[in-house]
Amino acid sequence: MAEAQIVCDSLVRIYQTGSVEVQALQGLDLTVETGEMIALVGASGSGKSTLLSLLAGIDAPTAGRAHVAGWDLLDMSARDRLRYRRRTVGYIRQQTAQNLVPYLTAAQVVDLPMTLARRPRKDRAQRVRTLLEAVGVGHCADRRPAQMSGGEQMRVSIAVALANEPAVLLADEPTGELDTQTSAQVFGVLRDVNKDLGVTIVVVTHDPDVSTQVERTVSIRDGRTSSEVLRRTSTAENGDDEVVHEEYAVMDRAGRVQVPKDYIEALRLTRRVRLALEGDHVSIRPDAQEPQP
Ligand SMILES: Nc1ncnc2c1ncn2[C@@H]1O[C@H](COP(=O)(O)OP(=O)(O)OP(=O)(O)O)[C@@H](O)[C@H]1O
């Protein structure tokens, strides 16, 4: 079977500032299939942006395994990394302004990544128009960022990220600075890109409504994937279609599963627990020998 488009195993990123060490990712596992669109959620500081910048090839992992579209992110020359950033991934940064250039028009900024990738001039002009139309901002071609709304700027940012036909699109809080209605429209553009162009998309978001818009929402806690919510459509007893959200814990390759904090507290689980295979499930019980607090 072909490997998934994004595979992270026990991914670690440690930042060292002076004598202080921050473990932004502490053994994160994530698999995203080709053509999937997933949302990544988690509290502030949980490691979402760190993960995205590693996947974008902006930053390098400290340890673990990370493969994206056939590239090994832990074993890449500087030249490979540049090529990867230009052609394999599209990255939309958290602040809209960081994706654009104040003195360039929308058409010029979408053209830029193609010029850097040495695409012939005649292809570029046509593609700039097609891309701006595709994300609904054809009318902004000659405008600079200051002459566009936040939603229009974000659409142009999406067009920039798509310029070199990336296999993977990474978006860090693309709707964070937008009102509810504009957010829904921008999210709609990302969904269309995913459906129509088959681009694999990972979107970081704080918006609790996103799980209703994607098939899979992955939660990150303390630099690890903690749970996943899958959205499924099933048929209710009255014959109507109903959307069901089911939450799953994530197990890593070594078989480790994180027990949710509220379960630990409810059963007063301590360092040692009793595990038992019971027919079709595994049970976890408190250790009777351990003194209860
Ligand atoms: N360049 C850096 N140097 C040192 N520490 C960093 C750096 N970047 C991130 N961190 C730390 O790593 C941890 C994870 O940060 P990250 O930005 O990935 O979180 P996040 O989940 O994206 O948060 P938010 O939702 O607020 O954007 C935090 O403790 C943060 O302070």
Automatic annotation (TrEMBL):
Source organism of the structure: Kineosporia succinea
Domain ABC transporter: 6-247
Matching SMART domains: AAA
Alphabetical list of InterPro entries matching this protein: AAA+_ATPase, ABC_transporter-like_ATP-bd, ABC_transporter-like_CS, ABC_transpr_LolD-like, MacB-like_ATP-bd, P-loop_NTPase
Keyword field: ATP-binding, Lipoprotein, Nucleotide-binding, Transport
Record PANTHER family: ABC TRANSPORTER RELATED, IMPORT ATP-BINDING PROTEIN
Protein's recorded name: ABC-type lipoprotein export system ATPase subunit
Keyword Transport: yes
